[in-house]
Amino acid sequence: MSEKPYYTPEEQMICTAARIIEDGSTCFIGYGMPQFVAILAQRTGAPNMHQVYEFGAIDPQVVTPLRAMTFGDSRNNYRSVCWTTMNPAFAHAAVGLIDYGFLGVAQIDPHGNIN
């Protein structure tokens, strides 16, 4: 009989994604698990990672613990270098200024298209 792991598949996915992020890289971050990926990466192996949140906050120092169902509040935007709208955030991604992108399932439709 094999023992059950001490972690959930979601926790493993967060840890694996966080380990991929290189120090000094720029990451486009969506709502939910991607936010946990970014925080874990920045606090472990990539302290100089730059976060670009989909709603427009650029390079915040996220305050933990996070409050559930709050994405654009002051704890998620603490000391942001810039706070703009979604358009510049997505434009940075479109022209190749983003190294990695982490989106939650809410941003992907049933056909695999990013909304």
Question: Could you please describe the fold and organization of this structure?
Answer:
There is one protein chain. The protein is α/β, with parallel strands linked by helices and 115 residues long. The protein contains three helices and five strands. The strands form two sheets. Strands 2-1-5 form a three-stranded parallel beta sheet, sandwiched between helices. Helix 1 (9-20) crosses helix 2 (33-43). The radius of gyration is 15 Å and the shape is globular. The model has no long low-confidence stretch (mean pLDDT 83).
Please give the alpha-carbon distance between the first and last residues. Answer: 44 Å
Number of strands: 5
The average pLDDT value, as a whole number, equals 83
The gyration radius over C-alpha positions equals 15 Å
Classify the beta-strand content into a percent band.
5-15%
Q: What is the tally of helical segments?
A: 3
Low-confidence stretches: none
Succession of helices and strands: HEHEEEHE
Globally, the shape reads globular
> Helical residue percent?
25-40%
Helices and strands, with pairings:
Blueprint lengths: L8 H12 L5 E4 L3 H11 L6 E4 L3 E2 L23 E2 L2 H9 L5 E3 L13
Helix pairs in contact: 1-2
Keyphrases for this structure?
single chain; 115 residues; alpha/beta; three-stranded parallel sheet; two-stranded antiparallel sheet; 13% strand; globular
